What does this fold into?
Amino acid sequence: MYFNETHEAFRASVRRFIDREINPHMDEWEEKSVPLHDLFKKMGELGFLGIRYDPKYGGQGLDYWYETVLLEEAGHIRGFGVSTAIAVQTNMATPAIDAFGSEYLKDKYLRGAIAGDLVAAIAVTEPDAGSDVFAIKTRAVRKGDHYLLNGSKTYITNGTQADFLTLLAKTGDDGGYHSFGLFVVPTDLPGFVVSKKLDKLGLRSSDTAELFFDNVAVPVENLIGDEGEGFIYQMKQFQHERFTILPGVHVCVQDMIDMTVDYLKKRIVFGKPLITKQVLRHRLAGWLMKNECLKQLTYHIVRMKMDGRDVTREISMGKLFAGQLIAEVASGCLQMFGGMGFMNETLISRYFRDSRIMSIGAGADEVMYEIIARLEGF
Ligand SMILES: Cc1cc2nc3c(=O)[nH]c(=O)nc-3n(C[C@H](O)[C@H](O)[C@H](O)COP(=O)(O)OP(=O)(O)OC[C@H]3O[C@@H](n4cnc5c(N)ncnc54)[C@H](O)[C@@H]3O)c2cc1C
It folds into this structure.
């Protein structure tokens, strides 16, 4: 209905790649993080990292439907750490360079990210500023041909392996939302330190870091767009980031339900397969109903994007709904597996740990509620 033969051929090639190059390694990568340079180089060679981007910089120049196919297939990865790392590269750290960056930034950093030669990270959150992005303290002060960058960032995905960060910093005090700059910060500059690799409940295949900047001299040409407009650019970039969650979640919810149904068919309790218990069947059917709503909202958003319409309201609703649904289904499916669900050897236990981030990262649920309320005018 939404995807033609070419989309499906593309889907098959992404799925093959995930089956061969990602899923067989997931247990190992959960122990010691995914090697991003290696993985991204392979993905770059297949054109998976620049689907929507301009062919001039190595992109595929395709539309949002193809991007949705990639994100849906990433939902089959057996752990959200790797799909998150990929989404950072394609939809979180590079859209602003594509939309507002200079020819120099696109040629060097967007091209490098699309090819998989450079690993990207997005650096917004700080120890004292997460939901309240306006409260960030990291500062970039112009000194001749560079900005001196001082401050720290935390919870940065891909942080220990990144070659560059797309980083939000304050450039002034008086301009309200127009007092920020968005910069491309290469991580080989003196004064940049990965202060800590963080230990997490879930997303264990992804590396997450605390970063520190001590008088890092960032060349002025690494400023994205106009000084003072960084906050606005980042708010726009957040829409690409939040959308990435929807296609992967509806696919993963379906996978979790499928694997649970398989288990319930085999598990005999009180003399009968558990799948015969009406209370469990109805719960599963209810999740399928909600998941269909999420899927249709996802496609509605893609149609709106293709039409060039503002999707802030719908993406905020979708991100909120997806985060709550996946946590509900992961927890509920784990319950149906019983003790087996609590064992690390059972994939549902990883999904249970990983799903919790979806209501926190990329703007927590409470932030999404607030955006929706504000857009509705109350
Ligand atoms: C694994 C992981 C990876 C991440 N990756 C990145 C990354 O790559 N780059 C990056 O920049 N950031 C990243 N983040 C940060 C993430 O975006 C923030 O954690 C998130 O925005 C929430 O900010 P916070 O943790 O500071 O929580 P806080 O802002 O301290 O909020 C704490 C709680 O209070 C709630 N709250 C906040 N304001 C209100 C309000 N007005 N009313 C009611 N409740 C409220 C929040 O919703 C939340 O539940 C990552 C986080 C994690 C855990």
